[in-house]
Amino acid sequence: MFEDYGDEEEDEEEEEDVEDDGGGQGDSDGEEEVGGDDATTTISGVLNTLSQNVRELSLGTCGEVPKVVGPLSALEFLREYVMPGRPCIITDAIAHWPALQLWSSNEYLCSKLQHQHISLHCTPDGRADALVPISPLVDDGAGSSVVFVSALVEQVEFPQALERIVGGSRCCGCLQEDDEVAYAQQQNGCFKSEYSSLASDADAHIPWATEALGCTPEAVNLWIGNQRSVTSFHKDHYENLYAVVTGEKHFTLLPPTDLHRMYIRSYPSAHYVRGRSSELVIEEDRPTAMVPWVSVDPFPLPLDRKEAESKYPLYFDGPKPFSCTVRAGELLYLPSMWFHHVRQTPDPKGPTIALNYWYDMQFDIKYAYFNLLESLAAIV
Ligand SMILES: O=C(O)CCC(=O)C(=O)O
């Protein structure tokens, strides 16, 4: 996720270009009108019109993600979903996986992965790769600033990792609000490496998707989390087939044509480290690096809601996002470049477990249009 918005140099260049054009981010007064109404004469008006047209012509305006019975034929998948870039939930596509029965048993998982070390992503509150306000060490009068923080990744033997994820290390066996949150979410094709002993429980690829997309997956990732693990809004340069095996995942989705509603800004990058009492503390990256990231949190705390609405009106006052819950046994097709924010509800007996297949996207004319959009959105 981290590198999805391009490298720093490119972003610095983009910002310089914006300044050269005389337009600052968030300054719509500088926009030039060319005559006619706002929907066709200002950049933000044109972007809103594009987003609305795409909904009306292709995606639908109700914000629902269609559910279809699988497995799909390669042709139907390509024609109905991949080419128009429309998400869908496919039922009955993974019903044959032994994982659907086996992975709701923590004992089974621990026996298969008894001595296996896995990468565990640790945060104080479940928000990895997310924006966090920090207070300066010295009060310079500027108040707090916001940094982009990555999780601390620890190598832990699977049985201990699972215990930390589900909160079993507590005497009552349940997670407390002030516990740190552990999320197994290594995104480097970990299913084939860290979890190779589970390989026979699920397919190595989704056959009709492989046929439609003309390649095997670039990465297959396993996700094991709890109700406090949240993935902040971002997009990926992959076609994503996301299978839920236990529990439920709640997706909030926006199409690439809503980019201007995401308020992408550059933030200093930071990471969590262990402090003196082994608590997680934020350390800014040195040398300083800036990460372009979506500013919008779609679910602010009730106390912060008003402020969020006034800072990000294009998001909160605009068309509602597409949202869906993907249940155990279902497969979500998440088209490349769609913004997604993910929450989860665990299985009553254990964590939420999902397996996702990232297929390379086509870097074609749609991608070129998206880059154009990115440049335009930076001006408004
Ligand atoms: O399941 C999650 O927490 C995030 C999934 C995601 O971002 C992805 O599959 O690209």
From TrEMBL:
Regions of compositional bias (Acidic residues) in chain numbering: 1-36
Region spans: Disordered: 1-41
Transmembrane intervals: none
PROSITE patterns, sorted: JMJC
Species for this entry: Sphagnum troendelagicum
Protein's name in the database: JmjC domain-containing protein
Database matches in InterPro entries: Cupin_8 (IPR041667), JmjC_dom (IPR003347), RmlC-like_jellyroll (IPR014710)
Lineage: Eukaryota, Viridiplantae, Streptophyta, Embryophyta, Bryophyta
Every JmjC domain range: 182-374
Family: Belongs to the JARID1 histone demethylase family.
